[in-house]
Amino acid sequence: MQTVALTPSGPEVPQMGIGTWAWGDRLFWNYGSDYGPAEVRNAFEAAVSGGVPFFDTAELYGLGESETLLGRFERESGQTVQIATKYLPLPWRWGAEAVEEALSASLTRLGREQVELYQVHSPFNFFMGADTLMGALAREVKRGRIAAVGVSNYSASQMEEAHGRLAAQGVPLAVNQVRYSLLTREIETNGVLDTARRLGVKILAYSPLAQGLLTGKYTADSPPEGARRLDNRYSPSGLAAIAPVLEVLRDLGRKHDRTPAQVALNWLVAQEGVIPIPGAKTAAQAEQNLGAVGWSLAPEEVERLSEVSRPWRAA
User: Which residues carry out catalysis?
Assistant: First the structure.
């Protein structure tokens, strides 16, 4: 497994991670219905044994349950993993002490003294102010409680501002976690990707399979369960629109003996400075994700996928 340095002197992580939004989330993912702690534990073990011991979580996921599960699995397995989690800038979090308190709570749930990456979950920091927020994060780096700082869902200008405020404290901005897949390519045209590359910021690509659309397993007669059923992309017209992309994914999958999902993830790995973090609720899903790395699409195959998915570049 190749690794990627988040910052010049910071942690190195695998070229793909595992997203854990579904671990403990009952509202969107129906945790506790057809899957639960046993299944996500198996997903954890499959990812670690397969060489991807890098997990992205957040205090918001399952209202802390995702962090609690991840911490428990790490302790009970005896394995050392790399963890990225997130701070949510809630309206009542006014001062720098709010960052310290939220990080302390996350570390307690994780059973750790440090996380490899701590990210701001959204750019809504007007109650605290960007200078206060970034200053608080820089202090936590210097305290040793976080190894690298990231942001999430930041625009190009917001990312550049965060980068500058951290740089003034001698701390690099490591990542911007944004939605990125063959069916969500807006960051290529709205300045986020270009700015990230210019600043040396890595892109953590969440929803890299477009919430399952790029697996090819859903049809108008067999949509996903839960809140995703309301997404118009799963309608007959929505599925018809992505059919050409799925056709190329299946064609390349046959050539490389891979699934459409694995080909879609490999396309992301081929993008400079991009680390996909597909979710996994079960061992089977984690193992499916693992099949996306350890091989490479040819440059002309990468371009073929880029061309067929070009309509999804519009901002």
Answer: 61
